[in-house]
Design goal:
This protein is of the alpha/beta class. The chain has 17 helices and 15 strands. A five-stranded mixed sheet has the order 2-1-3-14-6. Strand 1, helix 2 and strand 2 form a beta-alpha-beta unit.
Length: 461
């Protein structure tokens, strides 16, 4: 489960990490799926592209996992006693940690020590798909080079492997996603006679009505470190749009950015949207019971409303992502989601890819996972698990599945977190009373500055 952008958490998203500790994880299942690895890899053109190191069948594989994914790795080990495994717990890239990257750079210098399999963040893939020095192998192996069947890769939710893809190859498998949708308190909506909005315009109108009819009740918050992923990503704002691998477009004066900023400003002014974060200290106690709606990730149901706000069962419901009136193409954001990578240095690629395939695609593992699986069939098993649906006032399956295939791929995975500029520039501005609209230029400049320090060329058109 990626903490909340998550999730760039990750990019690790710290919100989901913080929320996740409030619930115990279900015991991972003991049965395992199977994958095959052909270590004689060739590119689609027939030319050898990835040359594995000498393979040692049956050799031990070392797995680095975060504490949340540890039970899954242990379950695989238990159900595959013939596979020699050493499991190491580390931070998994949480909160922007560069521990894995630093270690890989060290291993590249010393020529040994690389783990065979690691859990990480989409941000980790940006450097792991490139060599750390001339002549070195990129840390992550290209899984589409006959290591994982294309049919398996095709089974992931639309766009969910985009953060794994660089230079035409796929360097990771997505563990989970955190597609954004509309959460609402069905009990209160029914009591007050409100209709669930389907467009952003209806959402704004209802927010203003709520502020008038029921002062103090909220339809959202922009005060968390990843709130921009729920709103501006869903609005298709080109804040983090890689037009080339080395060129980032950030244009916050684009109409799709300014219209979202204006909508949010209107709701903030009406006191229908909070500038205090859902996860900020004291919010759950003081305002948790007054959240009528929340536009946010799929994990909000369990980890925000149930665990955080302590909202009783059968009150909270989910609806599909909002669209703009007059537009037929739906799009939404994503607030979290980790990845698994196989090391190009692994001497047992068969065992390594089998493990990663089982972790990400098997019903046995994913049906009891803490967050929504990226693999479509595993997601169906997750949704069928009563633990993932009995709390809600409606069947969340349809809105979850719809949103999973509508995450906008124009918000790119970069070498730096998309949360830093939002947290350092935008949130303080909102706290001081400035509008989002007026803060857009400063936010854009901060993004550009960060991008340039990472070697990106920056354009605004």
């Amino acid at each position: 489960m990626e903490s909340s952008r998550s999730p760039r958490t990750d990019r690790r998203h710290s919100l989901l990490r913080t929320a996740a500790v409030t619930l115990s994880l279900a015991t991972a299942a003991a049965l395992a799926g199977c994958a095959s690895a052909d270590t004689t890899t060739h590119s689609s053109s027939g030319q050898s592209a990835f040359k594995p190191v000498a393979q040692k069948e049956g050799s031990q594989i070392t797995v680095w996992a975060d504490s949340t994914r540890l039970p899954s790795a242990q379950a695989y080990q238990k159900s595959h006693p013939d596979v020699k495994m050493k499991i190491v717990t580390y931070d998994g890239g949480a909160d922007g940690s560069t521990y894995l990257q630093s270690k890989v750079q060290l291993f590249d210098r010393t020529g040994s020590g690389w783990p065979d399999v690691v859990f990480g963040t989409p941000t980790d893939v940006t450097w792991a798909s490139e060599a750390t020095k001339p002549g070195a192998l990129p840390f992550a192996a290209p899984l589409d080079e006959k290591l994982v069947p294309q049919s398996t890769l095709d089974g992931f939710a639309k766009g969910s492997l985009t953060p794994c893809q660089f230079n035409g190859h796929t360097y990771c498998m997505r563990n989970d996603i955190a597609q954004v949708l509309l959460w609402y308190n069905k009990s209160l909506m029914d009591k007050w006679g409100y209709k669930v909005p389907t467009t952003w315009q209806e959402y704004e109108a209802l927010g203003k009505q709520v502020a008038k009819d029921h002062p103090g009740y909220l339809v959202g918050s922009v005060g968390d470190t990843n709130s921009h992923e729920s709103y501006f990503w869903s609005g298709q704002c080109p804040a983090f749009n890689l037009v080339k691998p080395d060129t980032l477009r950030t244009d916050l004066q684009d109409p799709k950015c300014t219209r979202m900023a204006k909508l949010l400003d209107n709701l903030i002014s009406a006191k229908a949207i909070a500038t205090q974060g859902f996860f900020s200290q004291g919010f759950a106690k003081n305002s948790g019971s007054k959240v009528l709606m929340a536009y946010g990730p799929s994990w909000y149901g369990q980890y925000l409303f149930k665990a955080g706000f302590k909202t009783p069962a059968k009150q909270i419901a989910a609806a599909p992502p909002l669209t703009w009136q007059g537009e037929s193409t739906a799009a939404t954001g994503n607030v979290g989601g980790g990845v698994w990578m196989v090391s190009s240095h692994s001497a047992n690629l068969k065992a390594s890819t089998d493990l990663v395939t089982w972790l990400t695609t098997s019903d046995e593992n994913q049906a009891t996972a803490p967050t929504y699986p990226a693999y479509t069939q595993a997601a169906k098993a997750w949704l069928a698990n009563p633990a993932n649906r009995n709390y809600f006032a409606n069947d969340v399956s349809e809105p979850f599945e719809q949103a999973a295939n509508e995450v906008w791929t124009g918000w790119s995975n970069t070498k730096f977190s998309d949360s830093t500029a939002w947290s350092s520039v935008v949130l303080p501005a909102l706290t001081s009373g400035k509008s989002l609209t007026d803060t857009l230029p400063t936010w854009q400049q901060e993004i550009a500055n960060e991008a340039k320090t990472q070697g990106y060329k920056v354009v605004d058109q």
